[in-house]
Amino acid sequence: MDLIMNNTDLSSFEEIKNIKKQYGEKLVILGHLYQRKEILDLSDYKGDSFALSKNAAEQKNAKHIIFAGVHFMAESAAILAQSGQIVQLPSMNAGCPMADMAELADVEHAWNMVTDALPGQTIIPITYMNSTADIKAFCGKHGGAVCTSSNAEKLFKWALKNGDKIFFFPDEYLGRNTSNALGIPRDKQFLWNPHKNEEYSAKDISSAQVFLWRGYCHVHRFFSEEHVKETRTAYPDAVIIAHPECREQVIANADYSGSTSFISKYVENAPKGSVIAIATEVTMVDRLAVEYPDKKIIPVTRSICPDMFQITLKNIKETLDNIGSRNVITVSDEIKKFGGMALRTMINVTMGN
């Protein structure tokens, strides 16, 4: 990661600071932890997707919300936005391949198959934050919720307390790792491939406790058990932390598993001289290494999110130059209603409300 800004970036950085001063509390920049250091330095709030959703919902005075993240995050902010608030995404190229792996038509077809096969049973749909707004609305409409990697266990427990089975979208690995953590037997975890719907029998469906959608984050799927073992050999004193979007073999061989927020807090609180190897997006790992030079922070291997990297000082500045009009993220009233239900359920369950 280039931590030395060139003249153009330095100029954009200073201009953004000046624009922020002009707008005061009417402007809020939300920065995801995978963003580069200079972007997070300009963010009013920085955190994982749960923290930023909560921050977005709490904004009362801001008219303009600039989301330094990817599209599904900005959509969630738009769902939770107050009347009159405008959400903008600096680059419309900042997408998420995993979010696109669960299309609404496929989800509805699978849902109908499951509910038809299980009359009288309550199926709770839960979608990972890394999903499109219409999938969030689908979950809200059917009494479900959203989760993030920081609260997936809480939402799974909530769902199993209030229903018979869970249908989880779209990350099979987060779903698998959460199910494993909760002691749900492997033979009760059913991997649903939307391209093989017709192969599934009523017996297959009835035996499952959790349905896992076949989808994944390519950034975290890149990490392997071998990468972890090589890191152990090279750094025998290292603590290894893996993001729960990684394969279950990676999680099983790591010392800890946790969200970006968990990882950040662990590094912050670790004693001087600690060696910490991290299996998550490398921009964040590199930034933590710079922020904590008294500790050795290394990537298990280097895996970058090109979509997060679409957000730059240049396009944040361009967005602010066209505030209220450039790359505005909007959602329909129906998605705002039902997607908001799913997101607020997540917030309430997580906060213990």
Automatic annotation (TrEMBL):
Lineage: Bacteria, Pseudomonadati, Candidatus Auribacterota, Candidatus Auribacteria, Candidatus Auribacterales
The name this protein goes by in its record: Quinolinate synthase
GO molecular function terms noted in the UniProt entry: 4 iron, 4 sulfur cluster binding; metal ion binding; quinolinate synthetase A activity
Cofactor(s), by name: [4Fe-4S] cluster
Keywords: 4Fe-4S, Iron, Iron-sulfur, Metal-binding, Pyridine nucleotide biosynthesis, Transferase
SUPFAM superfamilies: NadA-like (SSF142754)
Domain of life of the source: Bacteria
GO biological process: 'de novo' NAD+ biosynthetic process from L-aspartate
EC number(s) recorded for this UniProt protein: 2.5.1.72
InterPro entries reported for this sequence: NadA (IPR003473), NadA_sf (IPR036094)
Pathway stated in the Swiss-Prot or TrEMBL entry: Cofactor biosynthesis; NAD(+) biosynthesis; quinolinate from iminoaspartate: step 1/1
GO cellular component, one term: cytosol
